[in-house]
Design goal:
With about 350 residues, this protein is mainly β. About 10% of the residues lie in helices and about 35% in strands. It is built from three helices and 18 strands.
């Protein structure tokens, strides 16, 4: 986009033609025309084939001419029409919209959306996000002061204020029914044009849920979304008891690993079925006991076979039937698995890893 190169002029005999072309263009983007789209008219060429700006010339401004000084009027060239049209169309498209000749407010919408994209934060980030399930249920309400949604990672960013979403496993599943003893991902979707929001729940028992909704096609216009929480389901396909604050989910203590065998080196065990695969950090405890007195016993858990993030005790002398509990917080390197190392010098040991929550 540049000013007219000086010299793109003709005399007054073509002023009417120039004015008529300019009026036609202005009319095409006014409310009376009721559209913003590329030119539809006789004697046009396909997009990409229109006239281009001259390669040389001095940028200037248009004039109606002056008979007294023999100054000719500026001819409104096709390349200038194309430049203005494409500047407007490009802005609308950059705002994530599709050109719509029946919508005369798209330029304003696009500018607003582009400005919103500059909001700080990342998709799924929320202020004071909460969800509590006090008893197994098919419904749960997510609330937050605000949530950031995006069209794609790094794409159009949209902030929804005063979020309150009553998720329902019976009506909001994007496909099929709620999984049994599995996990579900809860998404918030929005239509940036209307501000309307909807909910979608995705079965994520066997996979990691993406941060932006990628399930069954939502209604047209719902172009931004965010994962707001990943939650477990019970044997009846209901939300399990628990509570979420921001990106951390807590629930009553559950045993996710138990053995009475000493292995002496790190061995992997699966957390699938106990915590969702989206879990990034596991919170819980390590429990060790033995039925024999004066036994040296140890239990350690780590993120990988190298002992990364190792939690636990190196060795501990226990009395008969005494129990030692060690609280832990461990980052998860490989989704769905952790590593455990156990040892006991005698007797019948008990080694358990428990979980009380996770971040996602």
């Amino acid at each position: 986009m540049n000013r007219f190169p000086r010299g793109e002029t003709t005399y007054f005999s073509v002023r009417f033609r120039r004015s008529r072309l300019l009026i036609r263009f202005l009319y095409s983007i006014t409310p009376e025309a009721n559209h913003m789209d590329r030119l539809i008219a006789a004697n046009t060429v396909p997009v990409g084939s229109g006239d281009l700006a001259p390669a040389t010339g001095t940028p200037g401004q248009a004039t109606d001419g002056n008979p007294a000084t023999n100054t000719p009027a500026t001819r409104f060239p096709s390349y200038a029409f194309n430049a203005i049209q494409e500047e407007l169309a490009t802005t609308i498209l950059a705002g994530g919209l599709t050109l719509d000749r029946t919508n005369n407010g798209q330029l304003a919408q696009a500018v607003k959306f582009i400005a919103q994209k500059q909001v700080s934060g990342v998709v799924g980030q929320a202020r004071n996000a909460k969800m509590t399930v006090s008893a197994p249920s098919t419904t749960a309400t997510f609330t937050a002061d605000e949530v950031i949604l995006e069209s794609v990672l790094g794409g159009l960013r949209y902030c929804v204020a005063n979020a309150s979403d009553a998720f329902n496993l019976g009506t909001d599943m994007d496909a099929g029914s709620a999984p049994v003893s599995g996990a579900v991902a809860l998404y918030k979707l929005a239509n940036p044009t209307t501000g309307a929001v909807i909910r979608r729940i995705v079965n994520t028992t066997s996979g990691i849920a993406p941060e932006i909704y990628a399930g069954a096609a939502p209604p047209a216009g719902y172009t931004v979304s965010a994962l707001v929480v990943v939650w477990g389901t019970d044997s009846l396909g209901r939300f399990v008891v628990g509570s979420m604050r921001d990106r951390r989910v807590s629930f009553p203590t559950k045993v996710i690993f138990s053995t009475s065998t000493s292995n002496g080196s790190y061995t992997s065990f699966s957390t699938a079925g106990n915590i969702p695969l989206n879990a990034k950090t596991l919170y819980g405890g390590l429990i060790i006991a033995n039925n024999t007195a004066n036994v040296t016993i140890s239990l350690q858990v780590a993120a990988d076979a190298n002992g990364t993030g190792e939690q636990g005790n190196g060795s501990f002398l226990v009395q008969a039937n005494n129990t030692l509990t060690i609280m832990m917080g461990l980052d998860i390197v490989t989704a769905g698995s952790l590593y455990v190392k156990t040892s006991s010098s005698a007797g019948v040991p008990t080694f358990q890893v428990t979980s009380t929550g996770y971040t996602f």
